[in-house]
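Dear support,

I submitted the protein below through the web form. The confirmation email said the job was done, but the results page showed an empty box. After a refresh the structure appeared. I'm attaching both so you can tell me whether what I see now is the final result or a partial one.
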Amino acid sequence: MATEDADGRGVARLRERPLTLIARAAGSRAQVAAKLARLVTAFTSLASKRALDARLERLAALGYVETAPTRLQLVVGSIDMLRFWITPAADEYYRERGIDFGFHQVLRVLEEPASMVDPTGFLTDRDVIIDHLLQVTHANPAYDLQLLESHQEGLEALVEQVRAAIAGTHPKIASLRATVEDASYHARLLRYAEDYVRDRTTPPPVRSNVAGSERWAKIEATFGTLPAAMRYFQKMPTTALGAARHVMTVRTFPTALAEPAGDGRA
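What the results page shows now:
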């Protein structure tokens, strides 16, 4: 297993020139073609009500969904998850590390465009979810691991691919190294995934800018795990007018709908 520096400054993302990173993230012609094929599949899946219902049924069987939200609630909830949690928490983290947020999103799109299509991940292929976990340091990977449980051998495939990324043998290792920002992240992810397979109550490795932060406590508790996020989605409007009003008028995270900080693990 390769050794990695503690502060992550040895990773390609923080030392390579922009054009080199772009070339790394894009990959070979064959890889680009495969990525475009996965992107088409991802967009096609978004229109499949049957696929969404099947995913929600599997998540319900696993105990991660109590009452399934409607498709409209999922859309509105995912918008809130993006604008109140994923994007601002990532932007804060990148600023702390001296990373340009916009350019980093370009690299992520080049590395795996299909991973950017579906914010909830419900209609995303197993290996695209894994790629998403590998390409960036997650604020809390628990949501994604719970989602992977609804895929055949999802957790086993994750462990296998994280090990390959650490060993440098993953088929997409060059492009992954163009996006991952912390050299120790994959090792932390592997420890968590292996422990999680044995014990689903294993605490996740929360990202440095989120751990212990008052600003993020309730938001992380709400969106950091699938059950908590689903409870939030179920509180979203059920009509088009209500959804539009919510998106247009709610400008800050609605703490009245939040999970109590520390109670969103299950």
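Response: this is the final, complete result; the empty box was a page-load delay. The CA atoms of residues 31 and 172 lie 8 Å apart.
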